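Quick one: structure for this chain?
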Amino acid sequence: MRILFVHQNFPGQFKHLAPALSADPANEVVALTMQQNVPSAWQGVRLVSYRPGRTSSREIHPWLTDFETKTIRGDAAFRAALAMREAGFLPDVIIAHPGWGESLFLKEVWPAAKLGIYSEFHYQPKGLDVGFDPEFPAEDVDDACRLRLKNINNLLHFEVADAGLSPTYWQASTFPQPFQSKISVVHEGIDTAALKANPDVAMTLNGSIALTRANEVITFVNRNLEPYRGYHVFMRALPELLRRRPSARVLLCGGDDVSYGARPPAGKKWKDIFFDEVKDRIAPADWRRVHFLGHLPYEHFIPLLQLSTVHVYLTYPFVLSWSLLEAMSVGCAIVASDTQPLREAIRHGDTGRLVGFFDHGMLVEEVCGLLDQPDERVRLGANARAFALEHYDLHTVCLPAQLAWVARLAAGGG
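Got it. Here's what it folds into:
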Protein backbone atom coordinates (compact mmCIF):
# COMPACT_ATOMS: atom_id res chain seq x y z
CA MET A 1 0.00 0.00 0.00
CA ARG A 2 1.21 3.50 -0.86
CA ILE A 3 0.48 6.02 1.91
CA LEU A 4 0.97 9.77 1.91
CA PHE A 5 1.02 11.72 5.17
CA VAL A 6 0.43 15.47 5.03
CA HIS A 7 1.38 17.69 7.95
CA GLN A 8 3.03 21.11 7.84
CA ASN A 9 5.27 20.12 10.76
CA PHE A 10 5.50 16.37 10.17
CA PRO A 11 5.31 14.04 12.05
CA GLY A 12 3.04 15.94 14.48
CA GLN A 13 0.16 13.71 15.51
CA PHE A 14 1.45 10.96 13.21
CA LYS A 15 4.75 10.36 15.02
CA HIS A 16 3.78 6.79 15.94
CA LEU A 17 1.44 5.84 13.09
CA ALA A 18 3.73 6.79 10.20
CA PRO A 19 6.75 4.73 11.39
CA ALA A 20 4.49 1.78 12.20
CA LEU A 21 3.16 1.78 8.65
CA SER A 22 6.62 2.22 7.14
CA ALA A 23 7.87 -0.78 9.13
CA ASP A 24 5.69 -3.02 6.95
CA PRO A 25 7.75 -3.84 3.81
CA ALA A 26 4.50 -4.03 1.86
CA ASN A 27 3.99 -0.28 2.36
CA GLU A 28 5.58 2.73 0.72
CA VAL A 29 5.17 5.71 3.05
CA VAL A 30 5.82 9.32 2.06
CA ALA A 31 5.23 12.55 3.98
CA LEU A 32 4.59 16.02 2.56
CA THR A 33 5.76 18.77 4.90
CA MET A 34 6.44 22.49 4.86
CA GLN A 35 9.67 22.00 6.81
CA GLN A 36 12.75 22.86 4.79
CA ASN A 37 16.20 21.23 4.74
CA VAL A 38 14.80 17.96 6.04
CA PRO A 39 16.60 14.63 5.54
CA SER A 40 15.47 12.43 2.70
CA ALA A 41 13.82 10.01 5.12
CA TRP A 42 12.70 9.73 8.75
CA GLN A 43 12.12 6.33 10.35
CA GLY A 44 11.48 4.79 6.97
CA VAL A 45 9.22 7.60 5.76
CA ARG A 46 10.39 9.47 2.64
CA LEU A 47 10.11 13.23 3.16
CA VAL A 48 9.05 15.74 0.51
CA SER A 49 9.09 19.47 1.25
CA TYR A 50 6.94 22.16 -0.25
CA ARG A 51 7.23 25.92 0.03
CA PRO A 52 4.43 28.50 -0.33
CA GLY A 53 5.04 30.75 -3.31
CA ARG A 54 3.70 33.95 -1.75
CA THR A 55 2.43 35.55 1.44
CA SER A 56 -1.04 36.78 2.33
CA SER A 57 -2.45 39.91 0.71
CA ARG A 58 -2.41 43.18 2.58
CA GLU A 59 -5.71 44.42 1.21
CA ILE A 60 -7.79 41.26 1.53
CA HIS A 61 -10.94 41.42 3.64
CA PRO A 62 -9.82 40.68 7.22
CA TRP A 63 -12.42 37.95 7.65
CA LEU A 64 -10.76 36.05 4.80
CA THR A 65 -7.13 36.35 5.87
CA ASP A 66 -7.12 32.93 7.55
CA PHE A 67 -8.60 31.15 4.56
CA GLU A 68 -6.33 32.92 2.08
CA THR A 69 -3.33 31.67 4.06
CA LYS A 70 -4.70 28.14 3.93
CA THR A 71 -5.38 28.49 0.21
CA ILE A 72 -1.80 29.59 -0.41
CA ARG A 73 -0.50 26.56 1.46
CA GLY A 74 -3.01 24.30 -0.28
CA ASP A 75 -1.82 25.62 -3.63
CA ALA A 76 1.82 24.97 -2.74
CA ALA A 77 1.06 21.43 -1.59
CA PHE A 78 -1.01 20.90 -4.76
CA ARG A 79 1.99 21.89 -6.93
CA ALA A 80 4.27 19.56 -4.97
CA ALA A 81 1.72 16.77 -5.39
CA LEU A 82 1.60 17.31 -9.15
CA ALA A 83 5.37 16.88 -9.27
CA MET A 84 5.11 13.72 -7.17
CA ARG A 85 2.49 12.33 -9.55
CA GLU A 86 4.67 13.12 -12.54
CA ALA A 87 7.47 11.21 -10.83
CA GLY A 88 5.17 8.20 -10.56
CA PHE A 89 3.88 8.36 -6.97
CA LEU A 90 0.21 7.36 -6.79
CA PRO A 91 -0.97 6.96 -3.18
CA ASP A 92 -3.75 4.60 -2.21
CA VAL A 93 -4.35 6.49 1.02
CA ILE A 94 -3.74 10.10 2.07
CA ILE A 95 -3.71 10.85 5.81
CA ALA A 96 -3.66 14.58 6.50
CA HIS A 97 -3.92 17.14 9.24
CA PRO A 98 -6.09 19.63 7.34
CA GLY A 99 -5.66 22.48 9.80
CA TRP A 100 -3.31 24.54 7.61
CA GLY A 101 -4.97 23.85 4.25
CA GLU A 102 -2.33 21.58 2.69
CA SER A 103 -4.78 18.83 1.81
CA LEU A 104 -7.46 21.05 0.25
CA PHE A 105 -6.67 20.15 -3.34
CA LEU A 106 -4.89 16.79 -3.16
CA LYS A 107 -7.92 14.84 -4.37
CA GLU A 108 -7.68 16.91 -7.57
CA VAL A 109 -4.28 15.32 -8.10
CA TRP A 110 -5.15 11.83 -6.89
CA PRO A 111 -8.95 11.43 -7.16
CA ALA A 112 -8.81 7.67 -6.57
CA ALA A 113 -6.91 7.96 -3.28
CA LYS A 114 -8.83 7.62 -0.03
CA LEU A 115 -8.47 10.71 2.16
CA GLY A 116 -8.54 10.48 5.94
CA ILE A 117 -8.28 13.70 7.93
CA TYR A 118 -7.21 14.34 11.51
CA SER A 119 -10.33 15.92 12.98
CA GLU A 120 -8.91 18.01 15.79
CA PHE A 121 -11.47 20.74 16.41
CA HIS A 122 -14.39 22.53 14.76
CA TYR A 123 -14.84 26.11 15.89
CA GLN A 124 -18.12 27.49 17.23
CA PRO A 125 -19.03 31.16 17.80
CA LYS A 126 -20.29 30.28 21.29
CA GLY A 127 -20.46 27.36 23.69
CA LEU A 128 -16.85 26.20 23.36
CA ASP A 129 -13.62 28.15 23.77
CA VAL A 130 -14.83 31.40 22.22
CA GLY A 131 -16.50 33.56 24.84
CA PHE A 132 -15.76 31.03 27.58
CA ASP A 133 -13.60 33.41 29.60
CA PRO A 134 -15.41 36.68 30.40
CA GLU A 135 -12.07 38.29 31.16
CA PHE A 136 -11.17 37.99 27.49
CA PRO A 137 -14.41 38.62 25.57
CA ALA A 138 -14.64 38.73 21.80
CA GLU A 139 -12.84 41.80 20.56
CA ASP A 140 -15.71 43.04 18.41
CA VAL A 141 -19.05 42.01 16.92
CA ASP A 142 -17.27 40.86 13.76
CA ASP A 143 -15.61 37.93 15.53
CA ALA A 144 -18.53 35.53 15.04
CA CYS A 145 -18.46 36.28 11.31
CA ARG A 146 -14.71 35.77 11.16
CA LEU A 147 -15.02 32.48 13.05
CA ARG A 148 -17.67 31.12 10.70
CA LEU A 149 -15.34 31.77 7.79
CA LYS A 150 -12.48 30.15 9.70
CA ASN A 151 -14.42 26.88 9.37
CA ILE A 152 -14.46 27.10 5.55
CA ASN A 153 -11.34 24.93 5.52
CA ASN A 154 -13.04 22.19 7.54
CA LEU A 155 -16.24 22.38 5.50
CA LEU A 156 -14.40 22.01 2.20
CA HIS A 157 -12.52 19.01 3.55
CA PHE A 158 -15.80 17.36 4.54
CA GLU A 159 -16.76 17.31 0.86
CA VAL A 160 -13.73 15.25 -0.16
CA ALA A 161 -12.63 13.33 2.94
CA ASP A 162 -13.60 9.69 3.20
CA ALA A 163 -13.11 9.47 6.98
CA GLY A 164 -11.91 11.37 10.02
CA LEU A 165 -9.82 10.51 13.06
CA SER A 166 -10.25 12.40 16.33
CA PRO A 167 -8.26 11.94 19.57
CA THR A 168 -11.21 12.32 21.97
CA TYR A 169 -14.97 11.86 21.85
CA TRP A 170 -15.53 15.44 22.92
CA GLN A 171 -13.36 16.85 20.14
CA ALA A 172 -15.20 14.64 17.65
CA SER A 173 -18.52 15.99 18.98
CA THR A 174 -17.58 19.54 17.96
CA PHE A 175 -17.91 18.59 14.28
CA PRO A 176 -21.26 18.88 12.50
CA GLN A 177 -23.28 16.05 11.09
CA PRO A 178 -23.18 14.33 8.72
CA PHE A 179 -19.37 14.36 8.85
CA GLN A 180 -19.32 13.55 12.57
CA SER A 181 -20.60 10.06 11.73
CA LYS A 182 -17.46 9.51 9.63
CA ILE A 183 -15.09 10.18 12.53
CA SER A 184 -13.42 7.38 14.47
CA VAL A 185 -12.14 8.26 17.93
CA VAL A 186 -8.60 7.02 18.57
CA HIS A 187 -6.00 8.92 20.56
CA GLU A 188 -2.40 9.21 19.29
CA GLY A 189 -1.36 7.10 22.26
CA ILE A 190 0.80 7.39 25.35
CA ASP A 191 3.92 5.30 25.88
CA THR A 192 2.93 4.04 29.30
CA ALA A 193 6.05 1.88 29.53
CA ALA A 194 8.24 4.99 29.48
CA LEU A 195 5.79 7.17 31.38
CA LYS A 196 5.53 5.49 34.75
CA ALA A 197 6.33 6.27 38.36
CA ASN A 198 9.93 6.35 39.52
CA PRO A 199 10.29 6.51 43.33
CA ASP A 200 14.00 7.22 42.94
CA VAL A 201 13.59 10.22 40.65
CA ALA A 202 15.70 13.28 41.41
CA MET A 203 16.04 16.69 39.79
CA THR A 204 18.44 19.55 40.41
CA LEU A 205 17.24 23.12 39.85
CA ASN A 206 19.58 26.03 39.19
CA GLY A 207 22.54 23.72 39.80
CA SER A 208 21.97 23.67 43.56
CA ILE A 209 18.38 22.78 44.56
CA ALA A 210 18.03 19.00 44.74
CA LEU A 211 14.47 17.64 44.66
CA THR A 212 13.24 14.10 45.21
CA ARG A 213 9.90 12.45 45.94
CA ALA A 214 10.42 13.40 49.58
CA ASN A 215 9.85 17.05 48.65
CA GLU A 216 6.44 18.68 48.25
CA VAL A 217 6.24 19.61 44.58
CA ILE A 218 3.33 21.24 42.75
CA THR A 219 3.61 21.03 38.95
CA PHE A 220 1.88 23.00 36.20
CA VAL A 221 2.58 22.22 32.54
CA ASN A 222 1.57 24.01 29.31
CA ARG A 223 3.19 24.33 25.91
CA ASN A 224 2.98 28.06 26.56
CA LEU A 225 1.85 29.85 29.70
CA GLU A 226 -1.36 31.53 28.55
CA PRO A 227 -5.04 31.99 29.47
CA TYR A 228 -6.33 29.16 27.22
CA ARG A 229 -4.57 26.74 29.54
CA GLY A 230 -5.49 28.53 32.76
CA TYR A 231 -2.17 30.14 33.54
CA HIS A 232 -3.92 33.26 34.90
CA VAL A 233 -6.07 31.12 37.21
CA PHE A 234 -3.08 29.22 38.53
CA MET A 235 -1.09 32.39 39.16
CA ARG A 236 -3.99 33.90 41.11
CA ALA A 237 -4.02 30.79 43.28
CA LEU A 238 -0.26 30.97 43.82
CA PRO A 239 -0.06 33.47 46.72
CA GLU A 240 -2.40 31.41 48.88
CA LEU A 241 -0.79 28.12 47.85
CA LEU A 242 2.62 29.40 48.92
CA ARG A 243 1.24 30.83 52.16
CA ARG A 244 -0.44 27.57 53.14
CA ARG A 245 2.38 25.30 52.00
CA PRO A 246 5.59 26.89 53.28
CA SER A 247 7.71 23.93 52.17
CA ALA A 248 6.25 23.45 48.69
CA ARG A 249 8.17 24.01 45.48
CA VAL A 250 6.11 25.14 42.49
CA LEU A 251 7.44 24.09 39.08
CA LEU A 252 5.91 25.68 35.97
CA CYS A 253 6.84 24.22 32.61
CA GLY A 254 6.04 26.14 29.43
CA GLY A 255 7.18 28.88 27.10
CA ASP A 256 6.21 32.54 27.04
CA ASP A 257 4.73 32.63 23.54
CA VAL A 258 1.11 31.99 22.48
CA SER A 259 -0.20 28.67 21.18
CA TYR A 260 -3.93 29.42 21.25
CA GLY A 261 -6.18 32.42 21.42
CA ALA A 262 -5.38 36.10 21.28
CA ARG A 263 -1.96 37.56 21.79
CA PRO A 264 -1.38 39.86 24.75
CA PRO A 265 -1.18 43.64 24.35
CA ALA A 266 1.71 44.74 22.15
CA GLY A 267 5.11 44.32 23.72
CA LYS A 268 3.86 42.14 26.57
CA LYS A 269 3.72 38.43 27.39
CA TRP A 270 0.97 36.59 29.23
CA LYS A 271 3.58 35.05 31.47
CA ASP A 272 4.75 38.49 32.64
CA ILE A 273 1.28 40.04 32.84
CA PHE A 274 0.04 37.57 35.45
CA PHE A 275 3.39 37.38 37.21
CA ASP A 276 3.20 41.13 37.68
CA GLU A 277 -0.39 40.88 38.90
CA VAL A 278 0.54 38.73 41.92
CA LYS A 279 4.19 39.56 42.52
CA ASP A 280 3.55 42.08 45.29
CA ARG A 281 1.43 39.56 47.21
CA ILE A 282 4.28 37.07 47.47
CA ALA A 283 7.32 37.60 49.67
CA PRO A 284 10.77 37.33 48.04
CA ALA A 285 11.57 34.21 50.08
CA ASP A 286 8.42 32.52 48.74
CA TRP A 287 9.18 33.54 45.17
CA ARG A 288 12.41 31.58 45.51
CA ARG A 289 10.24 28.47 45.77
CA VAL A 290 8.63 29.17 42.38
CA HIS A 291 10.55 27.93 39.35
CA PHE A 292 9.72 28.81 35.73
CA LEU A 293 11.40 26.05 33.76
CA GLY A 294 10.54 27.15 30.21
CA HIS A 295 10.38 24.44 27.54
CA LEU A 296 11.90 21.22 28.85
CA PRO A 297 13.50 18.53 26.67
CA TYR A 298 11.31 15.44 26.82
CA GLU A 299 13.94 13.47 28.74
CA HIS A 300 13.67 16.09 31.49
CA PHE A 301 9.90 16.47 31.22
CA ILE A 302 9.26 12.88 32.31
CA PRO A 303 11.21 13.26 35.59
CA LEU A 304 9.26 16.47 36.24
CA LEU A 305 6.00 14.50 36.19
CA GLN A 306 7.55 11.68 38.22
CA LEU A 307 8.62 14.22 40.83
CA SER A 308 5.17 15.80 41.13
CA THR A 309 3.28 15.55 44.41
CA VAL A 310 0.19 17.24 42.94
CA HIS A 311 -0.17 18.11 39.27
CA VAL A 312 -2.47 20.92 38.08
CA TYR A 313 -3.97 21.01 34.59
CA LEU A 314 -6.45 23.66 33.44
CA THR A 315 -7.94 24.33 30.02
CA TYR A 316 -10.70 26.16 28.20
CA PRO A 317 -13.14 23.88 26.32
CA PHE A 318 -10.54 23.14 23.66
CA VAL A 319 -8.26 20.31 22.51
CA LEU A 320 -6.93 18.08 25.29
CA SER A 321 -3.18 18.28 25.90
CA TRP A 322 -1.01 15.19 25.69
CA SER A 323 0.61 16.32 28.94
CA LEU A 324 -2.56 15.56 30.90
CA LEU A 325 -2.60 11.94 29.73
CA GLU A 326 1.14 11.67 30.27
CA ALA A 327 0.65 12.83 33.86
CA MET A 328 -2.05 10.19 34.29
CA SER A 329 0.28 7.52 32.92
CA VAL A 330 2.98 8.50 35.41
CA GLY A 331 0.42 8.17 38.20
CA CYS A 332 0.22 11.81 39.22
CA ALA A 333 -2.39 13.02 41.67
CA ILE A 334 -4.18 15.50 39.43
CA VAL A 335 -6.33 18.56 40.07
CA ALA A 336 -7.93 19.66 36.80
CA SER A 337 -10.53 22.10 35.54
CA ASP A 338 -14.10 20.88 35.27
CA THR A 339 -14.32 21.61 31.55
CA GLN A 340 -15.58 19.32 28.78
CA PRO A 341 -12.23 17.97 27.54
CA LEU A 342 -11.27 16.83 31.04
CA ARG A 343 -14.46 14.96 31.86
CA GLU A 344 -13.51 12.24 29.41
CA ALA A 345 -10.36 11.32 31.35
CA ILE A 346 -10.64 12.77 34.86
CA ARG A 347 -13.48 11.32 36.90
CA HIS A 348 -13.88 13.41 40.00
CA GLY A 349 -12.81 11.46 43.07
CA ASP A 350 -11.66 8.50 40.96
CA THR A 351 -8.86 9.44 38.53
CA GLY A 352 -8.36 12.95 39.88
CA ARG A 353 -10.15 15.99 41.24
CA LEU A 354 -12.12 18.53 39.19
CA VAL A 355 -12.62 22.18 40.09
CA GLY A 356 -14.38 25.06 38.36
CA PHE A 357 -12.00 26.63 35.87
CA PHE A 358 -12.30 30.12 37.34
CA ASP A 359 -12.45 29.07 41.01
CA HIS A 360 -8.84 29.61 42.08
CA GLY A 361 -9.96 29.44 45.72
CA MET A 362 -11.27 25.90 45.28
CA LEU A 363 -8.14 25.07 43.30
CA VAL A 364 -6.11 25.98 46.40
CA GLU A 365 -8.39 23.86 48.61
CA GLU A 366 -8.11 20.78 46.40
CA VAL A 367 -4.34 21.04 45.97
CA CYS A 368 -3.74 21.60 49.68
CA GLY A 369 -6.17 18.86 50.58
CA LEU A 370 -4.30 16.34 48.46
CA LEU A 371 -0.95 17.48 49.80
CA ASP A 372 -2.24 16.51 53.25
CA GLN A 373 -3.55 13.12 52.10
CA PRO A 374 -0.73 10.85 50.87
CA ASP A 375 -2.94 7.75 50.76
CA GLU A 376 -5.51 9.58 48.64
CA ARG A 377 -2.79 10.76 46.27
CA VAL A 378 -1.62 7.19 45.83
CA ARG A 379 -5.17 5.98 45.17
CA LEU A 380 -5.94 8.69 42.62
CA GLY A 381 -2.59 8.22 40.91
CA ALA A 382 -3.03 4.46 40.66
CA ASN A 383 -6.52 4.90 39.20
CA ALA A 384 -5.26 7.51 36.75
CA ARG A 385 -2.54 5.18 35.51
CA ALA A 386 -4.97 2.28 35.21
CA PHE A 387 -7.28 4.48 33.15
CA ALA A 388 -4.39 5.55 30.90
CA LEU A 389 -3.34 1.94 30.40
CA GLU A 390 -6.88 0.87 29.51
CA HIS A 391 -7.77 3.73 27.17
CA TYR A 392 -4.59 5.45 25.92
CA ASP A 393 -1.73 2.94 25.89
CA LEU A 394 0.18 3.37 22.65
CA HIS A 395 1.10 -0.23 21.89
CA THR A 396 -1.91 -2.20 23.14
CA VAL A 397 -4.77 0.22 22.45
CA CYS A 398 -4.15 3.25 20.28
CA LEU A 399 -1.66 2.16 17.64
CA PRO A 400 -3.54 -1.07 16.81
CA ALA A 401 -6.76 0.95 16.50
CA GLN A 402 -5.04 3.52 14.27
CA LEU A 403 -3.68 0.80 12.00
CA ALA A 404 -7.14 -0.77 11.80
CA TRP A 405 -8.55 2.64 10.86
CA VAL A 406 -6.01 2.96 8.02
CA ALA A 407 -6.94 -0.50 6.78
CA ARG A 408 -10.64 0.45 6.78
CA LEU A 409 -9.82 3.71 5.04
CA ALA A 410 -7.90 1.88 2.32
CA ALA A 411 -10.82 -0.51 1.88
CA GLY A 412 -13.17 2.39 1.26
CA GLY A 413 -14.40 3.37 4.71
CA GLY A 414 -13.04 4.60 8.00
